[in-house]
Amino acid sequence: MKKRTVFVCQNCGFHSPKWLGRCSQCGEWNTMMEELEDEALVELPEGSSEPVLYQQIKETTSQRIPVGIEQLNNVLGGGLVLGSVVLIGGEPGIGKSTLLLQVSRDLASGNEPVLYVSGEESLEQIKIRGDRLGLKSEKVYLLAETSLERIVNAADRMKPRVLVIDSVQTMFSAHLTSSPGTISQVREVTNQVFRFAKKNQVPVFLIGHITKDGTLAGPKSLEHMVDVVLLFEGERDHNHRVLRVLKNRFGPVSELAIFEMSQAGLRAIDNPSAFFLRERPQNEPGSVVVSTIKGSRPLLVEIQALVSSTLFMGNPRRMSIGLDHYRVSMLLALVEKKVGYSFAGEDIYLNVAGGLTIDEPAADLGVVLAVISSVKNLPLPREVAVFGEVGLSGEIRSVSQPLARVREAKSLGFETVLMPEGNLQQLETENLKGIKCIGVSSVRKALAEVF
Ligand SMILES: Nc1ncnc2c1ncn2[C@@H]1O[C@H](COP(=O)(O)OP(=O)(O)OP(=O)(O)O)[C@@H](O)[C@H]1O
Ligand SMILES: [Mg+2]
Ligand SMILES: [Zn+2]
After folding, report:
1. What pTM did the predictor assign?
2. 368 and 288 assigned to the same domain
3. Which pLDDT score, from 0 to 100, does residue 32 have?
4. Residues 211 and 156 in one domain
5. Going by CA atoms, what residue is nearest to atom 28 of ligand 1?
6. Average pLDDT over the chain, rounded to whole?
7. From CA 101, how far away is CA 325, in angstroms rounded?
8. N or C end of the chain, less CB within 10 A?
9. Looking at the 3D structure of the chain, how many domains does it have?
10. Rounded to whole angstroms, how far apart are CA atoms 217 and 226?
11. Is residue 231 part of a domain?
């Protein structure tokens, strides 16, 4: 049975029985979206709703299923909440299907099957991937289907432990005439999945493709319809993947997990700092290790600078990968003014090793030292890690979580940490055992310490 649909302008709310390229009320383009005719107007809901006393409400968020991968548990805020809908977004080929097939493998047990629905791949294709991941006798059921009503029907009968839908953009509801992947369909599909999850207390993973500009395809509106939004990111030329939380109704949004893609699937990396520093060069000028915070965790990463005389007099190159371009320009100007270098004739390249991005000012000191190290052609002492924000007068300002940063450096065998004077005063002496912390209050003092 087809429900009646209507096209509604998302800008002004104008209703039209037909699709229009331009709303005839407000004049906006491409705002008409197919929606189900408001059911409340057609049929009044039966029965009445009873308010429930707060104390009598059963707590459900404490009922979490641990997924096999510890790092994914952390990202989810301590496991998968029953009845929650988790959207995982990522660019094509990043490893979304791989991750969720691994999760399915780990979660399926004797009398609790997992249902993995794919609208993109045939059962045979999925099996090839499953074989690679070592999927054998686990109770993972596959369904190649794009009709949402059929999927919900199958899931209703099976009552799986977890339902995976790969991907939300390939599914369509028969209630709407729009084609799969349109905003209307994606929203309707998500809506129905949400109702299924809540009614049956079955957690659902929804895979979503990401458009080039980095938004979850379909609208932002999808993000507020689900409980958890995860983003799976990576660099083309690197094997590692970063899983971040954009939204979590049941946990913090600061968590993140790092995986390595291999023949046998995604492997969670236990010690990301060691992973990102493993190829660090010995005694190279221009290389500085920074103790940064990614998510809620400290991470040691290497910042590399290359300063060389330019062929483009009057218009030297400035390039930074993984760092904020404007912040880097500011720091370069500051080094010229306060330390007395002139970069007018120099090309300057900056890079965060391993394809990571650092977006906190705590990396400033690392950037400044890397540039000067390259100019002087002098390496920093190898066992030094640094952090600190640099202000416009060349002062080194305190940053958040100094203790976590120091501990991470210590646990990776660094002997010295160069840090803001202000942060050093916050640390208690017992925290400084086994590692030498040097507090500096200005760029000049920092330079005097390392060179
Ligand atoms: N034999 C293999 N060895 C190592 N890595 C592989 C192998 N086969 C596939 N991969 C990796 O898996 C990735 C594809 O993973 P997957 O299909 O899970 O991604 P996806 O995000 O679901 O992609 P899509 O957007 O196409 O659905 C490839 O880009 C590649 O990096
Ligand atoms: Mg896929
Ligand atoms: Zn309008």
Report:
1. 0.79
2. yes
3. 85
4. yes
5. 93
6. 89
7. 38
8. N
9. 3
10. 14
11. yes
